[in-house]
Write a structure and sequence with these properties.
Helix content: 10-25%
Strand content: 15-25%
Shape: elongated
Distance between the termini: 54 Å
Radius of gyration: 15 Å
Largest sheet: 4 strands, antiparallel
Structural class: alpha+beta
Length: 92
């Protein structure tokens, strides 16, 4: 896709250095990728759709998922999750 329309795509695909490696997608078709630059522990999460609407998160995998679900990360590519996680207490 990058070769066909470089104006629409800001990143190459994996295995190119720094290329995007897909690991998730939401119900609206926005993809979640790793930008594979550097060591795997340094990879950034990138979200977006097929028209170069990207959000880059500078943090680790766990904090990205938690922040997205807790509503503390404003991610325009995925939208804002309005239903904050709540602790569920089970009665025995």
């Amino acid at each position: 896709m990058v070769e066909e329309d470089p104006q629409q795509h800001a990143y190459d695909s994996y295995p190119a250095l720094g290329g995007l490696l897909a690991w998730g997608v939401n119900a609206f078709g926005q993809n979640i990728y790793w930008a594979t630059a550097g060591k795997p522990d340094d990879w950034k999460a990138v979200t977006g759709d097929l028209v170069d609407y990207h959000f880059v998160y500078d943090g680790n995998f766990s904090s990205f998922l938690l922040g997205t679900l807790m509503g503390t990360i404003r991610n325009p590519a995925l939208g804002h999750y309005d239903h904050r996680l709540k602790k569920i207490v089970f009665n025995r």
